[in-house]
Amino acid sequence: MFFSKFDTLFTDMQVSLKTREIVAFLVSSVFLYILIILLFAWLFHSSGSIGFNITGKEKIKPDFGESVYFSANSFHTIGYGDIHPISSTGRLLVMIESFTSLFFVAIFSGFLVFLVIHRYSNIISTRNVYIRYRNHRYFLSIRLGNKGRTIIDLKSKFEAWTIVNNSRVRVFQLEEELPDLERILYFDIDLHQADNQKLRQALIDAMNNKTLLHMKFSFIGNDIRTGDQVAFAKYFDSGHLRFGTIFLNVYSWDIKGRRTDFRWRNFEKIGPMEQRQIGTFYEINESPL
After folding, report:
1. CATH of the domain at 50
2. For residue 224, is pLDDT > 50?
3. Is residue 288 part of a domain?
């Protein structure tokens, strides 16, 4: 519950996913570290297996606070010698704690480096494919979002196909370069263009339940900071086709021309298309503009 509230707080503060996961990992690691130290301190204290290395105090039992101090020293293999194991049980516990520290430090270091340099799968797309009406034209549209670093050199591919006699029959394919994906990007196919008429007819058949249309959108690009290749793919079918007009904004612009006040909850929201415009989509048989 603590970590869910912690994550909710960071979400409200609009902290990036990567930062949230790094902070959550550090908090979890500190919590586990304290737990290990306290556990072995309790074992040392309850077993009476440690004592002072001072003449006349060998039989004085260290209190719990001093046991915590010895446990931390043993975990980090410091060994000041002012407190030391006085029984086989104590020596065994020291070896176990030192052995545990080797794994803890190695795993902590490895995961921390991984979290810092690794790029998360923070690319999102709309769950549906939208037939949009804007500027007196119909478009097939997919909205893309990026919650991480900018992706450059994007090369996209859109495919549509049907299955006939257990064979894949391609209906349409389009490959093109896209602008940099900073935060929001729209992939639009103009359904008025001559090269896209076969796709338009396939969409009409799919919306009329005459055929099951399968679609895939994918792209590859490069992380602007590390140069690492980023790939994304999303599959759709006829059940994901929706009508709409203009997507709701997910951010605002400040006076310096920077995006601010992100509202990712609006990512999938889109203005409704009028019934007249929907009817016209089924009827259009005009020459490409």
Report:
1. 1.10.287.70
2. yes
3. no
